[in-house]
Structures are given as C-alpha cells and as structure tokens.
Amino acid sequence: MALVTGWLTKQRASFVWRFTLLYTALLITLIAVAFFVLYQLSVGEISRSYQQQIQFITQQQRVFNQQMSPSEYLTQFTNQAEQLTNLILAYEDKNATYGRLTSLPNHIASCPAQTTFLVDNTNDLRLYSGCIESLSNGRLLVAFDDENLYFLQTQFLRAGVLALLLTLGLGILSGRYLSTQFLSRIKHINDTAKIIQSGDLGARVTVSDRQDEFDLLAGYINRMLNQLEDSFHAVSGVTDAIAHDLRTPLGRLRLRLESHLTTLPEHPINESQLQEMLEELDHILTTFSAMLELSRLEHKQAHSHFNLVDINQVAEDVIDLIQPLAQDKQQALSFIASRPCYLQGDKTLIFRAMFNALENACKYTPSGGVIELLTTTAGFIVKDNGPGIPDEFKDQVLQRLFRLESSRTSPGYGLGFPLIKAIAQFHHGKIELKDNHPGLQVHVTLNMSHPIENKKDAVCSKS
Amino acid sequence: MRILVVEDDLVTQGFIKKGLTEHGYQVEVASNGQDALFQALEMDFQLIILDRMLPKLDGLTVLNTLRSANKTLPVLILSALDSVDERVKGLREGGDDYLVKPFAFAELLARVEILLRRQPISASPQSTLIQAADLKMNLLTRQVWRAGREISLQPKEFQILRYLMEHPQQVVTRTLLFEAVWDYDFDPQTNVIDVHVARLRKKVENDDLPPILETIRGVGYRLVDKTTS
Hints:
The structure holds two protein chains of two kinds. Chain A has eleven helices and twelve strands. The longest helix of chain A is centred in the middle third of the chain and has 51 residues, at 147-197. In chain A, a hairpin with a 3-residue loop joins strand 4 and strand 5. By secondary structure, chain A is an alpha+beta fold. Chain B is an alpha/beta fold. Chain B is 38% helix and 22% strand. In chain B, strand 3, helix 3 and strand 4 form a beta-alpha-beta unit. The longest helix of chain B has 13 residues, at 10-22. Chain B starts with a strand and ends in a 6-residue tail after the last strand.
C-alpha cells in the first residue's frame, strides 16, 4: 500500500503524468458522453417507440371495448392480436383468455407503468415488457418483445465499458511513453545542470539531430554555458595575469621597502630611492589599469558612443605625437592617406590603436629604420623594417602579457597588441600580423561591414 | 582660497587636506554626501573636490543639487570609476574636471590650480598677444619671440608653449598637456610628451638666456619667470 501511494506521489509530481491523467480523464468523459447520446438515439428511441405503440393500442382497444358489443369486440381483438407481430395482445374476461397468451400474469402493473415478464413460447423463454389495462368486461395486456432490445442494451453497455477501458489503458500507456521519452530528456538537462553546479563547467546538454523544442532548449543552454565558461576563463586568465605581472613588481617593491625599513637608522632613505619606488608603483598601477581596460573592452563593457571619425585626421594627430620619437632614432616615419576616410567608431580608441601600433614600431625598429602608416578604406596598416615577429609567435603576441623577451626585463607592458586587437574587435574588426620582408606589417581593420565613403567624394589627401 | 574636500576615505582625505594646506589653501572636509551638500550650500568655497562614490548621498547627486541651486563654483570629481562613460557622465552632471584614482597629488594640485585660475589670459577674443616671462606670442600670426628674438616652432610645439604661457607659474602635468594639445581623452602613459617638451625647450632655451621651462620630476612642467625674480 505504502509502495503504491509512494509511486503515486512520485508520479503526481511529474508534469507529464499529470498531463496524461488530465488528458485521459477528458477522453473518458468525452467517450461516455458520446455513448450516452448514441444510446439515447438508438436503444432509447426504439424503446420509446414501443411504448408509444403500446399506448396507442391500449387507447384504441379501450375505445373499441366501449363502443362495440362484447362479441364484436372479441372478434375484432382476435383479428388484431393475430395481425400484430411485434406486439403481443391478450384479453381476459370472466370466461376465458384470448390472444397470444394462455393466461394473464398477475404481477403486471397497470398502464402506463411497464413490467418485464417472461413468456414460455413452447420451447423458448422470451422477455416481454408491457402493462395491463382494465376494461369494462375484463383486462387487456399489451406487451412487446423486449428480448432484442435487451440484447442491444447489453451489447451497447459492453461496448461502452470496453471503449472506456481501452481509453484508460491507452492513456496510461501513452503517459508512460511520454514520461520515459520526454522526461528522460528533461532529466538529462537536469543532470547536466547538477554536474555544472558541482563545478564541472565543461558539461553540456546533448543535442539530437531532430531539431525539436528540446534541442532548441539544449542549444540555448549550451550557448549560454559557452559564454559563461568563456567569461570564467577570461576572469581566471586576468587573475592569473594579475598574479603574475603584478605580484612580481609588488614583491620587489615590498622587499625594497622592507630593506629600507631595517637599515633605516644607518642609511636614511633618500629622495632618489623614494622616487624609484614611486615610479615602480606607478608602473604597477599602469599595468593594472591597462589590464582592467583591456578586459572591459574585450567584454564590451565600455560602451562608448560611436561617431563618424575621420581616420586620416586621427592618423595625422598620431603622426604629430609620435614624429619626435622617430626622429630621435633617425627613423623615417611617413604617412600615406587613403581616399574614403570616414569610419563609424570611437575616435579616442582608434587613436590609441594607431598610437600603440606606431609606438611599437618605433620601439622595436632600429635606428635609421623606415616606418610607414597607411590608412585604408576600413582601417590602417603600420609597416616597419625592424626585426619583425617570427610566425610561431604571431598569435601569441596578441595574447595579453605575452612578450617576446621571456625575461620581461625591458620596459613595456605586453599589452600593446592585445589592446589593438581589443579595439579592433570592439569595432567589429580584426588585427592581422604579416611579414614585411623584413619587418612587420600590422593590419588593423575597423568596422569591416560598413566603411563610409567620403560624402563629398573628395580625396582625403595628406596635408 | 577656500576648498571643500569631500572624500569618505579618511586617509586620502587627510593627505589631500595636508597637501592643499601646505600650498596655502584653506581646506574644509566632509566625509559624506549630506555633510558635503550642507557645507557647500551654507559656506562660501572657491572649489570643491568631490568623490564620486560617497555614503548617504552619491557624489553626482550632490553635484546635481549644487548646480540646481545655482552654485557655479568649479567642481573636480574624484573617482575610482575610470571608464569613458563615467567620465562623460560626471562632466555632464556639471563637473569641471574628472580625476581617476589612484592619482598623483601633483596631478590633483595642478588641476586645482588650473580650475581656480580658470580665465586664461587669452580669454578675451580681442587679445591676440600672450605674454609670459620674457616670451611673447602672437596667436594670429602664430609667431613667438623670446627676449625680442623670434623662435620658429612646429604647430604642436606652438600649442604646447601656448598652454604653458596661458598657465604661467603653474605646474602643468603631461596628461593636462596631452589633453589640451591633442584633445584625446586618455593618458598615453609614455614619455612621448617629454620628447615634445624637450624639443620645445631646445628651441626656447638656447644661447645664454636662462632656463624657462622647469621640469618637475614625475609630474610635469612649469613655465617660470626667472628674469624678474
């Protein structure tokens, strides 16, 4: 018993089971109603027509009985009783019984109430329904053969019960099928969620080829999980990077402060030492801000307002800013402007991307080198004839904090290329590093989809 | 000159107060938005240094209320929020300048001084001539003279010198120079501005004339007038 109630409670909790039960109940009600209507239209109608006939014959015989003489009535009655085949008529007066019956049963009610009784038809017992009407000289029995109707009724009932049982069975079976089929898929999703909750972010919901609603749901869940996992990795990546790139200089600063503190009485700290420490701290703060900014750009949290930007104007500003650096290293820095020069974008970010690319070129190209800045229809290119970047490192330099010098001793943050990449992607563009034979070409595409042609159609010339 | 410093971190507040007092300012402090608003409305200040995130009443709300009450004094917003959007929001609410934490005190001081001496010499449209120390600048012809001798400058060098001459005797930080001359809103974080100033200096401080562009290490530059002192 407890087992059954337990099973029921468990099943009741399932949505598919509740749905199946409701559905089955509805179907059973529908079938019951249909059967009831069908019964009333067939068996009920036949029964009603018999009753009407009985009523009619009874009334007719009463009239005849009143108007005719007893002998005339008897003759008429005998004729009538013989003619009617579907009804049996019997009349009993003081002397004898006429009609189809040998005697009138006593327990039969007066019309219009009906009584069912058995008639022995020599070797066949048949069921009849009828009533007795008292006439002036005797009693009249009118009845119809109920055997066929009774049989029909029984058949009907049997068919009805069978149909209802079948519906119930089908309902339970389909419920079972639905629960095993659909619940198993929901259960799979639930199980995946549990696995993820327990810490395994790599778990995914299986998607079948059917492309049904469950597959759509699974697809959405998986996509959401992918994004979440990416964000988690990004966060942990930043954490690792911060740990690596900030801990080292922070540790250095701490050691320096500690050593100054322990040797303080003999060697008072001087201005240049303090200045060095301040510079070290500034370097740490700069790295920290740059990494924060990079993360923000990469995850599109810095919602800047895009405007029409004259890329050649930005390029000229960058050249103005960086020219002295190049001149100090006797590098030839030139700018070749493109014709369509308006882009949808963030002016400051484009400036920074260009500045970073050019500053890198100045920094790594030896004295006397040649550096070129070209604006294109959808971005810019920086070419230099410096040492370039070997192919195997071209992807790595785009990752944050990767620096070609493994020692990380020369100044720089390892955030230049990643920042350019993030800015390009923020503008729905990309960065590509190519060989300049010798040297490096940095191709930056911004707004790949829609560079805007200069409305005045003028050549954006170099001023 | 009375300055109201609104900052909920008491150590930062103390350092700002100490530093500003040492530079001759009278400093009042407030640690939350409500006190700040009360003091700013009741007392007369020439400048407010306002932290963006404050207990009780947010910094921007304080600023907004002040502006609604027709208080036009300059307000410098301090904030740990450094995105461009935050900066734009702060300036739109009526801030005159926006400084991101952590900042160098020298940067804060330079900005405070520039805000307090807001009206540059060239403010009136008629004056096309600027003079500072023994330098003279014609804004129309873009000519510059030092002690009567003409100096030829590149456009950006001219703009840098102009900004320095418009703020004589004041410390001008690299970031301020970059923002003023290039008009891009970020900190280039490199020595590139120093290179520009070095070139300018080479042209301005030649011959036997005394140095006029003073470098303040780790901070920026100052145009000094050594001829009169």
